[in-house]
Amino acid sequence: MSAWNVVILASIICLALKVAGYLIPPRAFEHPTVARIANLMTVALLAALIAVQTLGAGQSIQVDARLPAVLVAAGLYALRVPFVVVVIAAAAVAALIRALT
Amino acid sequence: MMPRAPRRTPDETAAIRAALAVGVATAAYGVSFGALATLSGLDIWQTCFLSLVMFTGGSQFALIGVLASGGLAAGPAAVTSAALLGTRNVFYSIRMSPVIGPGFFKRAAAAQITIDESVAVSTAQRTPAAQRVGFWATGILIYLGWNLTTLVGALIGDLLGDVSAYGLDAAAAAAFLGLLWPRLKERQTQAVAVGAAFVAAILTPFLTPGLPVLVAAVVAVVVGAFNLLDRSRRTPGQEGAS
User: Fold this and answer.
1) Do A87 and B79 touch (CB under 8 A)?
2) Which residues of B touch A3 (CB under 8 A)?
3) Long-range Cβ contacts of B212-216 (<8 Å, 24+ apart)
4) Which residue of B has its CA nearest to A31?
5) Which of B83, B173, B179 sits opposite A10 (nearest CB)?
């Protein structure tokens, strides 16, 4: 495979995956159980993504500056601190820990 | 609904504010993608093509990560891992489909910007109008920003160094947490979130990147199918009667 083959093939597959969901008629999701699963699915995917982004390092688990930063963020959200402030605070905590260690 | 008023509702303003916060943090990551992509052996055009057409960060990083370690011989593996990481977008587009509504071109455009961030901002909003605004604002903002910063990164990336030094990786996780937060009021969504995060973390050392997140979605299927932990509905088994 040439580099262009790889780039184009992978891009088309990823785009097709995004299109696929829109081709399914919305009526298929009117059933309450299916609608509930679709709704919970985004919760599960986001939560899993947060876990992997916080702890994952390739194919391994690594506890580093990200974990305290995300825990600080959770605490600030619980205190109803605005979203933007929390995101900046999380970045600052991680950057500070990395600068000091 | 009334015709679109020129003034935005507070809900829509909140959606746009979330879009800006998420968009800026994510777009900054494009620099690191552009820089790493050129280091992995792709040229500037190939790098920009990925951000323009593939446009799903996880898959893009996976593709160049495999290419960087295995070269072009690892091409099939690179394509596979990009596809695996992109599979969750199917679930996102299913979820967004009713929010976007009918219209071929609108849905085609929506498909291209259906990514973690746009879906997360959208589903965090309370009203349907704010969900729509949140999706489009986040998606368009990130599409423009991500492509611009990809180009910048491909051209001058080495000068900036590793963006994780600025804590942007933690900021991304914190942003997703903030978008999930409003939905964690019910016991059912709390259980799904904790269960899925646990499953994904536990499986990370054993599965190829992308798969742990997908397998974690099974938690949603199980809890949703049996409607576990739902306090508002104490008699399971009657959902089918609509």
Assistant:
1) no
2) 41-43, 46, 67, 72
3) B212/A48, B212/A52, B212/A56, B213/A45, B213/A48, B213/A49, B213/A52, B213/B85, B213/B88, B214/B84, B214/B87, B214/B88, B216/A44, B216/A45, B216/A47, B216/A48, B216/A51
4) B240
5) B83
pTM listed for this prediction: 0.79
pLDDT tens, residue by residue, A24-71: 887 777 788 888 888 898 899 889 989 998 998 878 999 999 999 999
- Domain coordinates of chain A in residue numbers? 64-101
Contacts of A33 in chain B (CB under 8 A): 224-225, 227, 239-240
pLDDT recorded at residue B193:
96
Which residues are A61's β-sheet partners? Answer: A56
Q: What are the 10-residue block averages of pLDDT along chain B, 242 residues in total?
A: 65 92 83 84 94 94 83 86 89 92 94 95 94 96 95 80 75 86 91 96 89 90 90 49 34
